[in-house]
Design brief:
By secondary structure, this protein is α+β, with helices and mostly antiparallel strands. It folds into two domains: 183 residues, no CATH class; 211 residues, no CATH class. Helices cover 51% and strands 15% of the residues. The chain has a six-stranded mixed beta barrel, surrounded by five helices. 39% of the residues are buried.
Amino acid sequence: MRYAWDGVRRRPGRTALAALGIGLATALVIALLALSSGIEGSASRLAVASGVDLLAVSANTSLATDAFPPVPNAHELPGAFARADPNVATASPWLVNDLVFANASLYAAANASPDGAAVPGGWGPSGAEAVGWIPSDNAGLNTPTVLAGTGFTLPGDPHWANGTDTGPDTHEVVLDQGLAQVLGVGPGATIWASPHALPSAAGLERWYANATAFRVVGLSGPFWLIPSALLGFFYLSELQALDGGLAAADDDASLVLVHLTDPTSPGTDQSRLAAAFPALNVLTLGDILGEIDHIVDLYRTFGVLVGAIGLVVAALFTSTVLLMSVDDRSQEIALLRAIGYTRATIGRFVLEESALLALLGLAVGAPLGVGIGYGLDLLLTHLLAGLPAGFSFVRFDAGVAATALVEIGAIGLAAAVVPVARALAVPIAEELRAP
């Protein structure tokens, strides 16, 4: 390596530029791969810890879309699932919908002036996602933690009485912290919800007249299943009644979360439930994670493409630096050949110099890539509210490190091809006679 060190030391400016070029390409690849690895790892970790072993949706539903066709007879499904498969410990039907929420301050302003003149500029109802479920029937599932307030006060689904939607309304709602902050409310406050958007401030009084009032009984943290900062949780039947697109008697859900007593062979339970409920698509946790991997693969492919471009540019830049080094030392190379150094040895000298430049690039790129990755994680974490606890956008693992090493090796080899050929083709006699 003495020859390589000597070449690097003689041209510090070129060496620094080559190392910087290689380092930038390496840092970019490391950051992008760490980003895809972090998203995949966090999603997998949260899914495994969720307690969800199977997920049932309407037939032909793809998790890659946000649309969930209705699953009928939601309240009957928990018992039907347990009868079809004794290994089912919990089957929890969920209805996911979009609603519009408003608070008491806006209500007071709307009633102060029928034409909306008393409503301050910028005030208005807020759109958010809503989840209807049976709060007490989620044993074994990782559900949102109530951080303030009592939470839902009655077990089961009180409005769904004796197989009908004629039971008493609780008018209770749990808001996540993001939605509570937007509405400026806490436990005990009253909010209004409606599936209908507000056309204008002048229509606020009519909007409130057609909306439903709910008492906030709790504030929850972020939720792993629906990464949104704005969420409201209702009793299943009360959200069904509130939904303007479906009649409550339809008893629809969007999906069913299933927790198994023994989750070691979920494929067996999947087959049982699929045979018993042909109108449903039953997915295992592996299927769910496969969908996540498919989405993350798009980002990984993008990272690979960008990295390939960076590799080509870095290899061309390093090759140019090495060619200049060979040209500057052509007389030395001729002299070494004249005193008995073989072509293979000369080629090895150039390869060593290329490898040394690549390693210097790695020394620059590795910490830079780690810094960019953690910077992206910090930025995205602050930009995207509502992320569940423990979610990280980046992860530096063995795969990311191995990719960086392979990249450095590829740059070193690719950059040395033309310089090695140039060094081997140096005319000994002409170079020795040159002044």
